[in-house]
Amino acid sequence: MGPVGHNLDKQLPFSWHAKGFATPSQGLEGSSNVMMDSTKILGVQIILIAAYSLIILLGFIGNSLVVYMIVRYRTMRTVTNFFIANLALADLMVDTLCLPFTLAYTLLDEWKFGAVLCHLVSYAQALSVHVSTLTLTVIALDRYRCIVFHLDSRISKKVSFTIIAFTWLVAAVLASPLAIFREYRYEEIPSINLRIAVCSEKWPSESRDATIYSLSMLLLQYVLPLSIICYAYIRIWFKLKSHISPTARSDSHCRRRKTTKMLVMVVVVFAVSWLPFHVFQLAVDLDLVLIFHDYKLLYTVFHVVAMCSTFANPLLYGWMNKNYRNGFLMFFRCQNKPERLYTEGSVRGRSYTFRATTLNDSIKHSTLNGQLPTPV
């Protein structure tokens, strides 16, 4: 699931200098908090480069494949999959506009990408996190509407695109303060005759406004959405568990249970991976991190854990959903990839099942152009 966090600016260590922290290698004057900086150790830097590179690679490939699958195959173009594609796009934005700059700034201790990217990168990554949170909430509410209230008529694809556009609009508004209240400046360090470029928050009232925004984002991006999502999935789970109609073991019912399990796992991974980072950021806002001797390394480790959520979703799809799993396999077996896949089901595409029991059988019996069976 895509990332969330209060004080999203700290997805990059922009506030490292702004909060007056110093590393031994920098020796900033006026700071009584000289801390260790294990990120300067060669071994640690190699591990960080490897970790960030792996996350970027897996996240880019996995989320690109998710989007490709939904665009390529007609029967994958369902409302739920459109929302999943939106989630994948948000994660792709994190992989391309967050992680490379995070790694560079962590290792270099200086913003070397200019004033434009100083504003753009922070805004883009905040935007992507908002979109991820809103999309996860929309998916939960959509399934709650259909399953708990027995509504067979799903929202139309046109309406789903309108909802997706609305999530980006709301996310753009919520992320805008991080683009507006930002400063790109040069900071002098006379003790070692050094001048470094810094990209940091610049609020009208530094302590009050920054804290208010941070706490607001913690509530709006983590606590409130997860509360809504948990309530929706708990109601869905009990509804599916108590289903006692004669068709309880129908393909439709089983498919709903499997899809719901997959989506619940997406939310669980999202919540667990981001919780340590949220707690640490709250400690930063309350100035409690001064008790840590290696603040920067702790921040980076928690950030790496949070960013793992960007590639976890495609892995979950491939593990828990037969459509995505078979589609991924076909993509990497390009020489055998069929132009058609055999499916059987209603004309409206509401109840598809595999006629072939294996991927090879599917390839042999493929007949429908550009389609995959059993849409989510």
From TrEMBL:
It comes from the Eukaryota. This is Neuropeptide Y receptor type 2. It is a multi-pass membrane protein. GO terms for biological process: adenylate cyclase-inhibiting G protein-coupled receptor signaling pathway. The keyword Transmembrane helix applies. It is found in: Membrane. It comes from Podarcis muralis (Wall lizard). One of its GO terms (molecular function) is neuropeptide Y receptor activity. Belongs to the G-protein coupled receptor 1 family. The chain crosses the membrane at residues 41-71, 83-108, 120-141, 161-181, 212-238, 259-277, 297-320. SUPFAM superfamilies: Family A G protein-coupled receptor-like.
